[in-house]
Structures are given as structure tokens and as C-alpha cells.
Specification:
Blueprint (H helix, E strand, L loop, with lengths): L2 E5 L2 E4 L4 E8 L7 E7 L6 E6 L6 E3 L7 E6 L4 E6 L8 E8 L13 E2 L3 E6 L1
Parallel strand pairs: 2-11
Antiparallel strand pairs: 1-3, 3-8, 4-5, 4-9, 5-6, 7-8, 9-10, 9-11
């Protein structure tokens, strides 16, 4: 089965950039729906961005469109989230997730495999 490990989080000023990485092992991420979620303590986990198995179709949460880009490197078996123009409201724990569901969505319930999370903090 696939195992996921996130990295790249940290603290930045508003307007700054970060690139999150999700290194996968045990299986090829091209076989899965791959997504980034984020969660603030006490709040529901929300889908941020989705990459379909084809790698050519994506979904992005409305609030991050134009600022975040999801992509993958099949050779490195790694998923990325490039985050630009960061805002304080982007502060959260970010999680990488994978699903073998027949239909890829950002519904948290279809994701079976999760990373441990990486913290992103954006200061105003």
C-alpha cells in the first residue's frame, strides 16, 4: 500500500510562498486520486486541491484558485502544492491524501491513505 510523507511547511509572511511536497512510497501515485486537504483545530477538514489520475485535470478550492497549484512528478513519485500569495487564512495543518475511488472528488470520505501533515503558518 502507499505511504505518504508531507514536508515543506513553515512560517511565512502574508504574500509569501511555500511549496509543499508529498513523497509517496509503496505504490505509484499515478494510480490514485491525489489531493491536499487542510484543517484548523476545531474545524472541519477541507479539500484544497485535487489531481486526477490522468494528471491533466485538477480541482481547486475557490479561495485558492489563482494562488495554489497542484502537480506531481511521477519519476519522483511525489505530489506538490505550490502556494503563492499566501494569506493568514491559509494557516492550517496541510495533509496529503490518496484514494483508489472510481471517481475522484475532494470529499474527505473517499480518501484511505493520509500523510502525517505539515504545518503552514502565515503571519500578517
Amino acid at each position: 500500500q502507499v505511504q505518504l510523507v508531507e514536508s515543506g511547511g513553515g512560517s511565512v509572511q502574508a504574500g509569501g510562498s511555500l511549496r509543499l511536497s508529498c513523497a509517496a512510497s509503496g505504490d505509484a501515485i499515478s494510480k490514485y486520486c491525489m489531493a491536499w486537504f487542510r484543517q484548523i483545530p476545531g474545524k472541519e477538514r477541507e479539500g484544497v486541491a485535487l489531481l486526477y489520475r490522468s494528471g491533466s485535470r485538477t480541482y481547486k478550492y475557490d479561495s485558492v484558485k489563482g494562488r495554489f497549484t497542484i502537480s506531481r512528478d511521477n519519476l519522483k513519485n511525489t505530489l506538490y502544492l505550490q502556494m503563492d500569495s499566501l494569506k493568514p487564512e491559509d494557516t492550517a495543518m496541510y495533509y496529503c491524501a490518496a484514494s483508489k475511488a472510481a471517481v475522484c472528488t475532494v470529499g474527505v470520505g473517499i480518501y484511505n491513505y493520509w500523510g502525517q501533515g505539515t504545518q503552514v503558518t502565515v503571519s500578517s
